[in-house]
Fold this sequence. Notes:
Two copies of one chain form a homodimer.
Chain A: E1 3-11, H1 29-40, E2 49-50, E3 59-69, H2 75-85, E4 90-98, E5 108-118, E6 132-133, H3 140-150, E7 152-155, E8 170-181, E9 189-196, H4 203-215, H5 222-230, E10 245-252
Parallel strand pairs in A: 3-10, 5-6
Antiparallel strand pairs in A: 1-3, 1-4, 2-3, 5-9, 5-10, 7-8, 8-9
Helix pairs in contact in A: 3-4
Amino acid sequence: MELNYKAVIEYDGTDFFGFQSQPGGLRTVHGELLNVLCRVFSNEKISISYSGRTDAGVHATGQVINFKSNKSFELSRLKWSLNSLLPDDISVRSLDFAEQDFDARRSARWREYNYYIINDYYQSVFLKKYSILLCRELDIDVMQEACRCFLGSHDFRAFCSLNDANKSKIREILEIEIIKTDDFHQKNMIIFRIRANAFLYNMARIMVGIITEIGSRSRKISDIELGFLDKDVNYSGSMVDAKGLFLSNVGYKVF
Amino acid sequence: MELNYKAVIEYDGTDFFGFQSQPGGLRTVHGELLNVLCRVFSNEKISISYSGRTDAGVHATGQVINFKSNKSFELSRLKWSLNSLLPDDISVRSLDFAEQDFDARRSARWREYNYYIINDYYQSVFLKKYSILLCRELDIDVMQEACRCFLGSHDFRAFCSLNDANKSKIREILEIEIIKTDDFHQKNMIIFRIRANAFLYNMARIMVGIITEIGSRSRKISDIELGFLDKDVNYSGSMVDAKGLFLSNVGYKVF
Lengths: 255, 255
């Protein structure tokens, strides 16, 4: 019987051309995973399904993948082997056997992304690859209000890349919040946590873009409503840099 | 009148051959700082004093430096300029004017280092450059007890590098503690926090080495006492890797 392996994957997106395999041999997370799985599973043809296609430069702490094989391995030994063979910027956080019909993409009920902004004049050396620095003043209350406009089901045609290939642009935002944190190493960190049933191409970064522009008063909250109505990308702000974005969590139905 | 500039510096030590300038043009934190200061201060001869000479691969969140110049700059603008010119792996956290007789090295009352160990089978991608992975079981209670043996003034001849050039090997450990933490991204993190009036060459890493060997029962607590008595390096454990070590804080007398 085929076994269905499910893994939670973590990666530093800095040196990858995104998750999905690319023509021309560009380095991708999918490519590196496939290389290692083919070695461990002795060149068996492995097909990887994954919860979210992250762009070049986007990081993950909770990307979920699954793949099937007739070969049976003890899970903790397999996890150890994979982590020994994977490059330093990818690792397997957890590994389980899933039900036969579990599919990391199709079974996912929601995806959650976190976006990190340092709203200060100083960005810690240790956060430069994982956050963006915004020096201009941001009105958090207005941004919270803007977040609430995104909640629920909407047509996100105005808030995704023109290159998005999905037929339906309707997506449901289940949760969206802004968390302000301060610690010894970094003051004035703002985290956007966005949970949706699914995301269109560049949707999370475009949402964070318009919300921060609303926070610095260069756009109005009404632009969100107008974007939903007119479906015109002119209502969206500038997209924020990939390096601040993390695919943090994926939710599944309980089998 | 000469102004005495005092700065707190942060750096990711991964790509540096330590703090101190080296012959042969190796990349050092001191070298990069000096380059940028000479540019900003128009090739004035700048001499940098610093609180602690960190080894190749050691990081800092709280290295303190000072330098003198007749040129007067507005501090927030100077900090911004320096951070714009410095490479991504060094930055100036804070900048102040200090009293004339303040010297980052001579005026320091204590230095504090943190060492990060992941005591698990899994090390987060985002911590690989900033911690070491130790899979073997560690007895935290025994390690806490070993820590207490180091408290106070001792001759650290057995617990420093043979290359240490200091005449007196007597140093005073003011505080030493082990903190166990757990978070979503990384379970079973152990932080060693060691505060001493000053450290000998490799002393912090050798101390962490013997304490972890005591924690895994490959050495005994009595080896610390014997090391102090016999001053023989055979009583010390293996030195832990530089990448887990951070110079985190330096304390000064109040002027």
